[in-house]
Amino acid sequence: MVDTMKRKMILSDIQKSIKEYSTEEINDWDSIKSNIDKILETHRPIKLCDYEYGMTMTLKNGHRIIVKEENDKTKVREYSKSNKSWICSNRHCKYATLKIKYGIVFTAITHNCEPREYSMALKIQELLKQGKTTEALGLTMKRRSLRHTSNQPLSASTDQSLSDSTLDELILANIIKTRNNS
Ligand SMILES: [Zn+2]
Fold first, then answer.
1. Which of 72, 80, 128, 134 could cross-link to 89 by cystine, CB 3.0-4.6 Å?
2. What confidence score (pLDDT) does residue 117 get?
3. For the chain, what percent of residues have pLDDT higher than 70?
4. 32 CA distance to ligand 1 centroid (A)?
5. At a CB cut-off of 8 Å and minimum separation 6, what does 17 contact?
6. Number of H helices, E strands in the chain
7. Ligand 1 centroid vs 114 CA: distance in angstroms?
8. Which domain holds residue 175?
9. Distance 82 CA to ligand 1 centre (A)
10. Rounded Cα distance, 158 and 76, in Å
């Protein structure tokens, strides 16, 4: 949990640079301050320039948020909308959440999965925009097999090599299967 002093610093930074953080007009800062402070115990605020909306593998526009890493902007973590909440799109860390409050995006500080290269996330988004879901999936799979150092079949692989697998991909695989069967 983030300590009180650090939260105070982050809070004052958000207040000072609210336009860099929020898409909304915040008029009554005092009334939301304590709510934001509560979120800051477990989440960090993301500046508007450090995240963007994207598409999911099932081509739902705006149902993915790509967030640059705090200390390495070449890497990202991706979150997918599931009902009303946002969770890491890596199914192995589905409890890492993203919140949107007062127009500000906050992401969980405790986050254990491997971030993805930003350039790769962009390539995948480009393919999805063109409706090329199979290619987008292929790119994800290719990346996974590149990281796979041994020649073992996928079934014998470790959790690590499968850690990019997302619920989206599983859903997509099912869609392709269904299409091929009909
Ligand atoms: Zn994750």
1. 80
2. 94
3. 76
4. 28
5. 47
6. 6, 8
7. 7
8. 48-182
9. 14
10. 22
